[in-house]
Amino acid sequence: MSVVVVGNGMAGARFAADLRALDPQRPVVIFGAEPTRAYNRILLPELLAGRVEEDDLLLPEASGALDLRTGVAVTEIDPVRRTVRADDGSRIRYDALVLATGSRPVVPPIVGLTRADGDLVEGAAVFRTLADSRRILAATDGARDVVVLGGGLLGLEAARGLTGLGLSVHLVHARGQLMERQLDGDASRILTRTLEGLGVRVRLHAATAAVVGGDRVRGVVLADGTAIPADLLVIACGVRPDVELAVKAGLRTGRGVVVDDGMRTSDPSIYAIGDCVEHRDQVYGLLAPAWEQARVAAGRICGRPARYTGSRLVTRLKARGVDLAAMGDPHAHDEDTEVVTFADPAREIYQKVLIRERRLVGAILLGDNPSVGTLTQLFDRGAPVPTDARSLLFARPGGGAVGGVGGAGAAGPGAAGSGAVPAANSTLCQCNGVTAGAIARAWLGGARTVAEVTATTRASTGCGGCRDTIEGFVGALSAEPEPGSELGSELTSQPDFESAAEFGSESGSESDCGSAAGPDVREEEGVA
């Protein structure tokens, strides 16, 4: 049974690796429109900031009978003949086809932004791919003033990264608050203050009316007439699922390619995963759902009874000097929801939890908050919260009603279980669903360094937010008199927790630059 994958992004590459793990001999052809190996898009803001090199972004390649065709785009799908045609003239037959076509950046209809042929004027760039990042970095040479359009995740990360290059950065957002889908007004105000303290000049309620300079960006003019000089304009106004191939093939689409719980499209021979997917009326643009979907699709193709029922999303802002995690619905204020908040604007801290029927349904955690890992665990599992909800915000590592925690988006040692020992089902790496028990098993199996544990379990290979947690946990294992014996044995004797792919669904987020972008525009990490 031959498998063809359209798209070599983070979802497509993960699917190939998962399929290889289940069936090393199955022939697979992967088409990637970009002329590079699969890479970690989430780290592109770090590349802009000069904190990583391009080689640091590359993802491991799947081994086995793999035919990887980089720089080759699929142009047509023939569901009747079960073939795909590529722009190099090749035609390949498939038994199972996997669409991992990702999403496309939205370019708002701003006067002066594009040339007559539709291309962006010189000095303007979207921020989506490695090639985009190269263009932006090349444009920074000799530049002084930068305008970033878009106050969602990607816009904030790009703005913060560019300040690290010593540039004067304006962040322009048409809405009245930053990350309005994930944050409330109070959190946005403190986040704005934090960013401005880091050198980002934030302008809200600021729709962009025009780009000035002719064929070269010289600045932007806002709707109120304010002119902002710019040598570089970065567009981070959200994305739309890339459904062009699916539409031409006659597949059912809505905002994305519609799939069932087995990741099958309306054609039972065609699957879809990642950014291009619409599942149960939800469109995701984050890494963890894409990788869960890849695992399910690989299992189904190999005859396994895998099932994807949605994801509980935890959004993390990965910008140096800003600690922010948001989960669930921070706007769910009704008579059945208990809301607990703590704000310390002077220390740039804002914490908010929303509880319904003793379950965490939303949270905003901005600034120093050692409970973020534990809250993520409670949200992920749908576990009951303590009777005194205040303990969710003020528990310290190693103590309190809800235990200690690790890094952003991950539960560290002590997050659950007794004493300093985490429960085996404590998820230390959210992107890959890697538990403390899985790491302990890898350790006892001979993976004795962080690099070896990462290679064995994939922990910290997603957004990287759990890296410190993984390092600390491996250090705890190595600190024992007989390394890993007591702690590792205790963890591996505990039952592991079920996969996150069995959890319920939460909606994604949207962001735009104030244009008529439509309801399907969303802000994302950029995975596939």
Keywords:
23% helix; 28 strands; five-stranded parallel beta sheet; alpha/beta
Describe the fold and architecture.
- With 528 residues, this protein is α/β, with parallel strands linked by helices.
- It contains 13 helices and 28 strands.
- Helix 10 packs across helix 13.
- It is globular and about 60 Å long.
- About 9% of the residues have low confidence.
List the helices and strands and how they pair.
Layout: E1 3-6, H1 10-22, E2 28-32, H2 44-48, E3 66-70, E4 74-78, E5 83-86, E6 91-93, E7 96-99, E8 103-105, E9 124-126, H3 130-140, E10 145-149, H4 153-163, E11 168-172, H5 185-197, E12 200-203, E13 208-212, E14 219-222, E15 227-229, E16 232-235, E17 239-241, H6 244-248, E18 257-259, E19 270-272, E20 277-279, E21 282-283, H7 287-301, E22 314-319, E23 322-328, E24 338-344, E25 349-356, E26 359-366, H8 372-381, H9 391-394, E27 427-429, E28 434-435, H10 436-444, H11 450-457, H12 467-478, H13 485-492
Parallel strand pairs: 1-2, 1-7, 2-3, 7-19, 9-16, 10-11, 10-16, 11-12, 18-20
Antiparallel strand pairs: 4-5, 5-6, 8-17, 13-14, 14-15, 20-21, 22-23, 23-26, 24-25, 25-26, 27-28
Helix pairs in contact: 1-7, 10-13
